[in-house]
């Protein structure tokens, strides 16, 4: 480190700025390299399909192609027989999305695209909609794709769902693996809501997508006869995991958030702000079966947030009730009486201790002391 950087603040800041600009340039370059590589993999996979290469050139074709490509392009990695098979699968799995028109349209609409069914009906080749669909495929690392292909080759919609979630959440490979082993796809957007009736069409679709049913609280450990307060405290103690479970764009605003409404104080269980929707989201949690009276309480909180916290640029506040269980038909009927955007979901827990059992477990300190005693004896 030079003497100048130690004594001159302006110089030190400039060096710091240069370092940051260089790192950003590196990142952009690596993204561009990844994109171009995946475009090539896509085109190679398409060639393999259109040429019917395995049928045309016989058994062991991928071993032959691997050797010939490595001779043609020496010192280049990525042309192993296994990777070449992945390239073919990469093309096959996502090209299927356009062979089934309704599913393809649904995926594009969920991605907030504006392609009409009439235009989609004229599309015969994936390359014609690269900006809308396939470009997303080129935005995540190849290693991520291989894991997704391994799991969901026969389910293109589910595969593409995890591609989109990887982009939205910037998932690492290990994080993606964690979610591939869950039922996230089945739970996403499944809450019972009145969003279609109470929000503009585009906003209602986005709002529905941020919901889940049920919410998975398996990261919590509670006693069998837990109280509502215990559950809420446990969620806040594990707020990072809770935010991950809620999904993209949720910012935590507070627990038992105080609102002064007239002469009365009201306390919201949990308040969030969703940066995707630009909306406050009030979350109320009940450890019992759904009761329609809960919606009255929640709607009061939603109106209060609209009047007190909502500012210019914020969209309509959303209320989400998370109960232990619910009757879906009863929940849907209950929502019809409200003009505010409200949703109802369940939660599930699996790590429940018998009452009193948790307190009998040794602490970390007890275990460490026991180990020390064993070593010294």
Q: Enumerate the spans where pLDDT stays under 50 for 5 or more consecutive residues.
A: 101-131, 357-362
Overall average residue pLDDT: 81
Query: Would you tell me the structural class of the helices and strands?
Result: alpha/beta
CATH architectural designation of the domain at 192-357: 3-Layer(aba) Sandwich
What is the CATH topology of the domain at 192-357?
Trna Endonuclease, Chain: A, domain 1
Question: How many helical elements?
Answer: 20
Provide structural commentary.
With 377 residues, the protein is of the alpha/beta class. Among the domains are: 1-93, no CATH class; 192-357, Trna Endonuclease, Chain: A, domain 1. Helices cover 56% and strands 14% of the residues. The chain is built from 20 helices and 9 strands. The strands form 2 sheets. Strands 1, 2, 4, 5, 6, 7 and 8 form a 7-stranded mixed beta sheet that branches. Strand 6, helix 17 (293-308) and strand 7 (318-323) form a beta-alpha-beta unit. It starts with a helix and ends with a helix.
